[in-house]
Structure formats: C-alpha cells, structure tokens
Amino acid sequence: MVATLIDFLSELSPCITLLRTPRKLDCDYLEVAHFAPTLNERGHLTLIPNPRGELRIEKDSCFNQCIQDGHISHHQEANSKRVLFPIVTNKLVTGVLDIDSDGLSNDIVGTISGFLSIYSNFMAMAYENEHDTLTGLRNRKTFDYHLSELLSSDLDSKGNNALNIEERRTQHKEEHHWISVLDIDFFKKVNDNFGHVYGDEVLILFSEIMVKTFRSSDMLFRYGGEEFVVVLAPTNAADALAVFERFRVAVEDYSFPKVGKITVSIGCASIQFNEHPTTTLEFADEALYYAKAHGRNQVCDYYNLFNEGNVIERAMGDEAEIF
Questions:
Q1: CB proximity list for 51: less than 8 A, separation 6 or greater
Q2: Average model confidence (pLDDT) for the chain?
Q3: What is the largest CA-CA distance in the chain?
Q4: Which in 102, 117, 213, 288 has the greatest CB count within 10 A?
Q5: b or e along 128-150 (b: 16 or more beta carbons within 10 Å of the residue's beta carbon)?
Q6: 168 confidence band (pLDDT: 50, 70, 90)
Q7: Whether residues 190 and 102 fall in one domain
Q8: Reduced to 3 states, what is the DSSP secondary structure of residue 287?
C-alpha cells in the first residue's frame, strides 16, 4: 500500500516527503518514511543527525500546526509553496505528507486528500490486526512475524550453520539485536486485591513507560497477560543491559494509581541470527525464570548466567543447546 501511495504521488509532484510521527509524541522530530528527490534539495527540511536508526527531520511550526489541527495546511516558502496533509489513523495523526504545491490545482489537492483517506483506512485496519487493543503495543502474532523475518533475512546472508558455544560467546560481545521478556512481578495480586480495572490500568501505564524508555527503532510487544517482549535495535551488551536496567528502575520508581509500587523482572539474550527464533526466545525466557526465582525485580542476561555457571549446556540430538 505504501508503494502504491508513493507511485501515485510521484506522478503529481517531483518533490514529496512522507513522514511518520514517532511513538513518543513529545519528540521534536519526525521520522522519514520516503523522500524525493533528496532531502538536501528541499531547503525547508532540517535533517537531524542520527547515527542509528531512521532518518529524522526537525519538527518545525508548520508540522506542529498540521499535527495539532489534523487539517490540510498551505505554507509559503521563500521560493516555493508547500502543502502538508495529515495522515490520520484511529483519530490520531500518525504521519504527514509534505509536498510542493507548485502546479497543483485544487482538484489535484482534493484527489491527494481522497487517496490519503483510503490509505488511512487501510492503515487503521492493519493497525487493529497487528496491535494489542488494551495497550496499543504490537501483539504476539506480529512478534512472531517480525522475529522470523528478522532472523530469516540474516540467514540468507550468513548461512544457517548452527553455532557452538564458543561462537555464541564471541558474537555476544558484538553489536546485535537483543530480545528481552518483561514480566510484571506479582501481577495476579494486583487483580485479586484491586480488581481487573486497576489491573488493566497498570498494563496500560506499564506500556507507556516502555514507549518512553525505549528507542523508536526498538520493537515493543505485549506477548500475553502481564508479559511483554522488547526487540532492541543492534547494540552491544553493555548498552543493552543499561537500557533494560533503566526501564526496570523507571517501573520501580513509578507510583501506579490505587495500586502503588510494582516491579518488573527481565530476562534477555542477544539474538544470534544463525539460531531458530524459538531458541532465542527460550534463552530470554530462561533468564527471566532465573530472575523471578532469585528475588525478582532484576535484569538477567542469559549469557552472563551461563558464564557464571547458573545455567548449563546439555546435548540435544547431535548438537549442543544451552539451557
């Protein structure tokens, strides 16, 4: 659908920029989904340096007006005119189309607006299918798809040979995607003592802390019940563990309405791309189990647990697996 939208718009104007609003709505930037011909040739756009992840541009007053009002807005620049179209999904502005308006008639502007309405309806249906209705995070079905896609794409370039334990140790020191399983401690007591309405509020606020803590390039999922999953964009072990620890502290410091303080246990593992998706998830889940069995309210890295002798390697079939 995005490709169809871009093809359609490219026939109407040579200068278009399709932008996404980040999950953190108070950010001073927008994420670039598509641009033509180049960002440098669109003088009113200010590119924000971002060595990791997506391209970003500064959210100027014109973008702010479009996002806040949710209406098409026209702007006169020094040498050209531009029109901003809000892209609305589930009553929220989730993106902005910035297009040069030179030569665009009112009829063409209306045509673009109509096509964007069709696009928004499509995105709304896709959103409902891929996201958890309570928290707004991606759902388990979407997690399974993204993880399989992530690993299979890397297998194509690196081969699918199984890793031995020494290779795992070596790769663990490099930059990788990371997967973590987050589990709210004693969540059943929240429902039992305060009721499911307050339990649901805890889940919603917990997910909001996730959105505020993790980067927009990280993938956040509600896996089921009080269990959540985060897939970090490539990073090294020290930085990954620091991010998870920062989130743990943020939850611990937050006072939930009526309920008060809660804590979270986190198990994580770097994603070794030669391994099956379920293997990586099992490693993170094993680290979570260790965290909950040894005091809760902590972050446990699977490979650190292995190196410390807290989990063991045992043979399964013809190849060694870690448990």
A1: none
A2: 83
A3: 70
A4: 288
A5: eeebbeebbbbbeebbeebbeeb
A6: low
A7: no
A8: helix
First-residue to last-residue Cα distance in the chain: 42
Q: For residue 146, what pLDDT is reported? A: 80
Euclidean distance between CA atoms 192 and 199, whole angstroms: 9
According to the per-residue pLDDT averaged within each range, which of 31-35, 110-114, 155-159, 314-318 is highest?
A: 110-114
For residue 78 the two structure tokens come to: 């020094």
88, 185: one domain: no
So what's the pLDDT on residue 315?
Answer: 36
> In one letter, which amino acid is 264?
V
- Among 19-28, 60-69, 72-81, 194-203, top mean pLDDT goes to 194-203
Q: Which of 130, 155, 170 is the last residue of a domain?
A: 130
* Closest listed residue to residue 263, CA positions, set 226, 302, 211, 219: 226
What CATH code is carried by the domain that includes residue 173? Answer: 3.30.70.270
Q: Which sequence positions are flagged as catalytic?
A: 226
Look up residue 166 and give its two tokens. Answer: 């020494």
Mean pLDDT on 1-21: 79
- Between CA 99 and CA 43, with CA 72 as vertex, the angle to 5 degrees is 30
Range of the domain at 195: 140-322
Q: What percent of the chain has a predicted confidence (pLDDT) above 90?
A: 38
> Token match 């902005």: residue?
96
Asked which of 99-113, 149-163, 177-191, 273-287 is least confident by mean pLDDT, the reply is: 149-163
Q: Which DSSP symbol is given to 163? A: P
Is the pTM of the predicted complex or chain greater than 0.85? Answer: no
3-state secondary structure at position 183: strand
Co-location of 160 and 273 in the same domain: yes
Nearest CA to 292 among 310, 312, 265, 263?
Answer: 265
Kindly state the helix (H) or strand (E) to which residue 123 belongs, with its residue range: helix 106-130
Q: Among residues 101, 130, 159, which one ends one of the domains?
A: 130
Residue 221, both tokens:
């999922």
